[in-house]
Each structure stands twice: as C-alpha cells, then as structure tokens.
Amino acid sequence: MNLTKTILKNLFHKPVTTGYPAESAHVTERTRGHVEIRIEDCVFCSMCARNCPTGAIHVDRGAKSWSIERFGCVQCRACVDGCPKKCLSMEASYTKPAAQKTADVYTKPTEESV
Ligand code: SF4
Ligand code: SF4
Question: Which residues, at least 6 apart from 75, have a Cβ–Cβ distance to it below 8 Å?
Fold first, then answer.
C-alpha cells in the first residue's frame, strides 16, 4: 500500500531536481558556486594551492599568474578561508557547464598595463 502511494505521488509531483542549465539553478545565500579571485590583491604565496585537497589551484609566482581547474574544484572553501590577503571568495553562481576540462588563468596586471 505504501509503495503504491509513493508511486502515485511520484507520478503526479514535479521532479525535485531542476533541469540546469536549461532552467536556472536554485541559488541561495549559502550556495557554494565557484571560487573567484581579485588577482590585483594576490601576493602569490601559494597558501591556497597548498590548502586545496584536490590540487585544483596552480600558482606561478614568476609569471604572477593564478589558475584554477574548475572541474577539479569541489567547492570546499579551504582556499578562500586560508588566503592571507582575503582576495579569494566563494560566489553563489555556477561556472558554465563545458564539454572539456579547462583551467581559468588570471594574471596580475603589470604597472605598465594598468
Ligand atoms: S592564498 Fe591568496 S594571496 Fe596567496 S596565492 Fe592564493 S590567492 Fe594569492
Ligand atoms: S574550494 Fe576547495 S577544492 Fe575548490 S579550489 Fe578551493 S580549496 Fe580547492
């Protein structure tokens, strides 16, 4: 009897999941969407890369660049919480779905380029 009730309920209720990305994602204040960096404030200390449990962050002090493999990130926030310059943040929106794994690379603008 319980099973019949459950089957009928599931047949006539909307799915609990959303069809993201065709439909917009349900985002709340606490949603951990993606990591963002204010590259201007980064000192390339590599604390974030050391704290990252999945090795998704790469820091190149010489080239003054910081990169993140979006598919490798599990949104744990360890990099954000451990950044001494507070230049990392966890934004609520999700990165766009992609067919291939890519890294987003950010390079600090030089004084000449500003
Ligand atoms: S911990 Fe912060 S300041 Fe250090 S490399 Fe990472 S983002 Fe830059
Ligand atoms: S949120 Fe976690 S998994 Fe993602 S880059 Fe930061 S430390 Fe790595």
Answer: 32, 33, 34, 35, 90
Half-sphere exposure of 48 (CA within 13 A, CB side): 30
Q: What is the model's pTM?
A: 0.83
| Tokens of residue 102, six digits | 């890519």
pLDDT, tens digit (0-9, with 9 covering 90-100), for 22-42: 888 888 888 999 999 999 999
**Number of Cβ atoms within 10 Å of the Cβ of 43:** 14
Q: Is the CB of 90 under 6 A from ligand 2?
A: no
CATH class held by domain 29-107: alpha beta
Domain positions in the chain are: 29-107
Identity of the amino acid at 90: M
Ligand 2 center to 76 CA (angstroms): 5
Task: Give the C-alpha separation, 49 to 54, whole Å.
Answer: 9
CA 13 to ligand 1 center in whole angstroms: 46
Tokens coding 95: 């990165």
